[in-house]
Specification:
The protein has nine helices and 22 strands. A hairpin with a 2-residue loop joins strand 11 and strand 12. Helix content is 23%, strand content 33%. The protein starts with a strand and ends with a helix. It is elongated and about 85 Å long. The strands form five sheets. It has a six-stranded mixed β-sheet, with helices on both faces. Strands 15-14-13-16-22 form a five-stranded antiparallel β-sheet. A five-stranded antiparallel β-sheet has the order 17-21-18-19-20, with no helix packed on it. It folds into two domains: 235 residues, P-loop containing nucleotide triphosphate hydrolases (Rossmann fold, 3-Layer(aba) Sandwich); 139 residues, Nucleic acid-binding proteins (OB fold (Dihydrolipoamide Acetyltransferase, E2P)), CATH 2.40.50. By secondary structure, the chain is an alpha+beta fold.
Length: 395
């Protein structure tokens, strides 16, 4: 069982009277890769800064290994931080950038029984630790290069090496991949996870990019408006979102109003569908999540629903198809091409439905009508008969 390393208890934070964090409760385990995920302004960076000691919470406690550290300054915490701007010293080479913190570090003098006297690390110790860390971040042989001669990914790895060489128990990373191009960002996601596993310490990562979170994390904490919406593994967050905000923020989702008639039976568009969910009240209004990749396209007469294709976007591995069902736009991701204007049917297996309780976010997400500004949308009412307009179903 993993050992708890950090606990945030009832954290609240306000700037100029405006709440930024509202009663955050969270624990982080030793050797865990935990990601704080959410849109700009959700409070994720503020949470990270409180853990690092750069910001003091308005109320609540930060515990490290069971000890309250609210008043412990950043330089006395066993925590280091890598920011989006790497702040490398341009006049120093890679070796000296990484060694910088070690040259300032003081350790107890082993010759002093009282433990009060401190000494600096020897040059031999500094060189050994720097070279070991450069090998960990795959920069062996780059010791004499200046930052200007490095790529963005290499500069980032220098910043990570500089933070890790001091042997912290926790590394905080505040959107460190934001300045990199798409391909390099994807490569660095894998590299960061490898580094975390190799050094065997806790990483706390902040991002608004759900793909980064899904790729690297052991645990994802989804935040919005200063509160935690859901905590779980990438698989749990994606497959079992707790509300419409999480379902929309993690991947693409069609989120439709429904009624849970009884266990394993949900009503949409006036008809009943089999699902796998249970535990709701009879006839309880719910939000129904259908992921775009869980929808199969079939001829209209064979579908559970029939709709009109209003736009098609080629994405390389798949097509993103927008389909109008009675004015509500669904996104379907498929390898099958359907032209704009075509009538299609769709089938969804019972495990393709995920049922969520209504929340403050209900009705805000899941309709892809925003595509109407970019594509020439067709109204379903122009393509179907009166009986299909009534319930959205194929004959």
């Amino acid at each position: 069982m993993s050992k708890e390393l950090i606990r945030l208890q009832n954290l609240c934070m306000a700037f100029d009277g405006e709440p930024v964090l509202n009663n955050i409760n969270l624990y982080i385990n030793d050797k865990e890769f935990l990601t704080l995920l959410g849109p700009s302004g959700c409070g994720k960076t503020t949470t990270l800064r409180i853990i690092g000691g750069f910001t003091t919470p308005t109320s609540g406690d930060v515990l490290f290994d069971g000890v309250r550290i609210n008043d412990v300054p950043p330089n006395r915490r066993q925590i280091n931080t890598v920011f989006q701007k790497y702040a490398l010293f341009p006049h120093l080479n890679v070796f000296e950038n990484v060694a910088f913190g070690l040259r300032l570090k003081r350790i107890p003098d082993p010759r002093d029984p009282s433990g009060k006297r401190t000494i600096r690390l020897s040059e031999e110790e500094i060189r050994t630790r720097v070279l070991e860390m450069l090998e960990v971040v795959s920069l062996k042989g780059f010791e004499n290069r200046k930052p200007a001669a490095l790529s963005g990914g290499q500069q980032q790895r220098v910043a990570i090496a500089r933070a890790l060489v001091n042997q912290p128990k926790v590394l905080l990373l505040d959107e460190p991949l934001g300045a990199l191009d798409l391909k390099l960002r994807k490569d660095m996601q894998i590299e960061l996870k490898r580094i975390q596993q190799q050094v065997g310490i806790t990483f706390v990562y902040v991002t608004h990019d759900q793909e980064e979170a899904l790729t690297m994390s052991d645990t994802i904490v989804v935040m919005d408006k200063g509160t935690i919406q859901q905590i779980g593994s990438p698989e749990d967050i994606y497959n079992e979102p707790k509300n419409a905000f999480v379902a929309d923020f993690i991947g693409e989702s069609n989120i439709i109003d429904g009624v849970m008639l009884r266990d394993k039976c949900v009503k949409l568009y006036g008809r009943e569908f089999a699902c796998l969910d249970s535990g709701f009240a009879e006839n309880e209004p719910v939000d129904v999540v259908i992921r775009p990749e869980d929808i199969d396209i079939v001829p209209p007469e064979q579908g559970q629903l029939a709709g009109t294709v209003t736009s098609v976007t080629f994405k390389g591995m798949q097509y993103d198809i927008i389909v109008d069902f009675r004015g509500f736009k669904w996104l379907i991701q498929t390898t099958d091409h359907s032209p704009v204007g075509a009538r299609i049917g769709v089938k969804i297996d019972p495990d393709g439905f995920h049922i969520m309780k209504k929340s403050a976010y209900s009705g805000q997400f899941g309709d892809y009508s925003s595509y109407s500004d970019e594509y020439d949308e067709l109204s379903d009412a122009d393509a179907v008969g009166a009986d299909e307009q009534e319930d959205g179903y194929a004959e």
